[in-house]
Amino acid sequence: MLAKLFNLEDGQKILDMDILLRGSHTLLVLFIIGSIIYTIFHYRSVRAIPSQGRKLTGLCHLLALMIMVIIVAMPVAKIRYSKTYRPIMLMLVDTSRSMDVKDKRVTVEALNEAAQILNGLPLNKKVADDVIQKLLKNKKQSSRLDLVKALLKHPDIDLLRRASERFDVRFFSFDQNLAPEGGAKNAPKWLADREATGEASRIGSAIDEAVSRYTGLPVAGVMVFSDFGWVNGEDPARVSSQLKRKGIPVYPIIFGLPAPPDAMINEIIAPDAVFHGDPVTFRIRLSSRGLDGRNSSLKMKIDGIETATEALSFEEGMQFVEFRIQPKQKTGTLILDFELDGTSLDSNLKNNSRQHRLRIIEEKIKVLYIESMPRWEFRYLRWILLRNPHLKTRFLMTQGDPELAKLSPNFMAQFPKDIRNIFEYDLIIIGDVSSKYFKPEQLKLLEEQIRVHGGSLIMLAGAGAAPSSYKNTPIENILPVRIGSGKAKAARNNEFPRLPEDAAHSPIVILNDSPDINQAIWSKVKPLGRLPALDGAKPLANILLELPGNGGSAYPIVSWHNYGKGKCMFVATDRFWKLRREVGDAQHGKFWGQSIQFLAMSRLLGQNKRISLQTERSRYNPGEAVRVYANVLSETYQPMIKESHTIIVEKKGISDSAQDLMLIPDPSTPGIYFGSLPAGTQGSYVLRAQDKDREISATVEYTVAMDPLEDRDTAAKPEIATAIAKASGTVVVATSELADLVDNLSAPDVSRIISREMELWDSPILYILLLLFVGLEWTLRRRENLL
Prior knowledge:
Elements: H1 2-5, E1 12-21, H2 25-45, H3 51-73, E2 75-85, E3 88-94, H4 108-119, H5 129-137, H6 144-152, H7 159-166, E4 168-174, H8 187-192, H9 203-212, E5 219-226, H10 236-245, E6 250-254, E7 262-269, E8 273-275, E9 280-289, E10 295-302, E11 305-313, E12 317-325, E13 332-340, E14 353-361, E15 365-371, H11 376-387, E16 391-397, H12 404-407, H13 419-423, E17 427-430, H14 440-451, E18 456-460, H15 474-478, E19 481-483, E20 489-490, H16 515-522, E21 530-531, E22 534-537, E23 542-547, E24 555-563, E25 566-571, H17 577-582, H18 585-607, E26 611-615, E27 619-620, E28 625-632, E29 645-651, E30 659-665, E31 672-678, E32 683-689, E33 700-704, H19 718-728, H20 738-744, E34 750-759, H21 764-783
Parallel strand pairs: 3-4, 3-5, 5-6, 8-14, 15-16, 15-17, 17-18, 18-25, 27-33
Antiparallel strand pairs: 1-2, 2-34, 7-9, 9-12, 10-11, 10-13, 13-14, 19-22, 20-21, 23-24, 24-25, 26-28, 28-31, 29-30, 29-32, 30-31, 32-33
């Protein structure tokens, strides 16, 4: 009765109880005295009632007054009781997209396991051939999540009954987020309603959050049903290690094949932009497993129209397919889609396609080449620059014939004085020119041109002044190498530039597709002559060609790095003209052409405009936030300060889709404005300036398309499951071992003593009794006509 009065649950037992009075004691005494006096007066006032009725009326009156005394006293029951908790077993089911994969099972073991689970057959016996054949012929293949659902209903394992007899079982599903708890009343129905649609599998975060919801309660363990294709979130092994210290084991149960037959497009190796009329080569890097020797094809579509198909035969691992096109249009953007036929065995068709955007530009790269004397490298490089139709080059000879500027429009007499004439150049080449030729403010402008305005610099070293004379100047900061002390030293006659062995080779220095032939071409550049004193490359520099060091670091012959918004390349030798003599003019021109285009192309795509726009990425999923940045400069190329800057966002192909996007200033960087908008429906979008700013502003494009991480590689990851088990001190649980696992788990119930106070004076029962007794007395008095 007390348990019901105090609303105690099953397993809760009262240990002791104290009654406390919270009301005013003085008021209570006065109320009791008043009640006694009133009762005596009342008893005398009803002498006309027969003795039996008078006693009943007095009793009702007395009981009503006693209840009122209790209310005035405000009694509180302070109880201590014990509560027994059953240990909690958490069951987490992965519902990310990879759990919707229908594995193409071909091995006897994989087919046997799937047939046993799906058909509720004994797990320790071989499945009959007719059952296997029925499984193979079933067009509606079962997904990994279907296997989980079937496993929890399997009669041999009887997991739900076994677990519920010993534990308080709690169910969760998870993908990129942990769903609310469910399945307590009807786990099979709850699980049947789950669908594998999540965009990511954050296993570690899900385990951590599920356990944290039961802080203070005994958790016997966590069972995780997943393919363990961990994507983002907390490291599941680290989370399991932390739970081990709390005595909470994690049991991974893995579903899916670790290496299902799969073909995918890994990467499209191609430029983002090319000049009008230039041929473009697309190298498509493919990978496959379990499809060795099977025939397939790769299709290329340009703006939705199929233009080429390449037949291929799958090779286990990586392979490449090439397409070559020569765009006819002068400007604009081409959308190239590549689609791979994965054959009927391919377990994941979602990673068989990729898209690439290619921008066609007609503008010319503006180059300023500053040299002292016309050395051999200058003579040959000058003709390369003049012959290239995509370049507009001006030359400045600091020690040459002063009449050249009068005789040729390609030459200038002195370094530009107007700040706008400096900033208009996309690329500046400095040869063996002394830093003393430039005024200090000109060197600062050169540094600002690279760092702030996205220009590029090439320093072509010489034995006289470059780079030694630029030590302790702003140009020293730009260079990707450390300027050493001392004089230039002659390289040995047998030394030549080598491609780094421990790094991927840059397209800049690839003169032939064959690595051996490519290195043989560079071996012709010898002797290298006098090389400047350097203290090596800077930490973030990319070394393209080097001289191996004798026990020390390599000497950088060609290196580059990003500097601010721009790039800088350092070439330590002026003997590359030997390529022309030993191999041919084409190889010499190819190196310099690739270098110039690499350095200047990004600025040509918009960074040389007074208003440049930029997004964090070029591809977004629907609903993601697209962060937009604008660098706004005045007519003198100084940061423009204003309250906001508005640009236009429109979806390509939809004329009435244009809308304004207001950007706000970045308080830490003058001239920079930023804002964001949600990625809309799938398609291509353009960010551009308002009509009044179009001539001085660049445009930027981005694509919205579904590209979930879960679709890239759907292979189950047993190594992740093993890492979780190892960190937790458990093992990866096979489906046939699941019943024994539950039976052998030991986790005793936990009892805890809890103190609680309960107000007795405001119980509804008291007020009901008060009304009952007052009403009964009123009825008796009315019957005797005393009212």
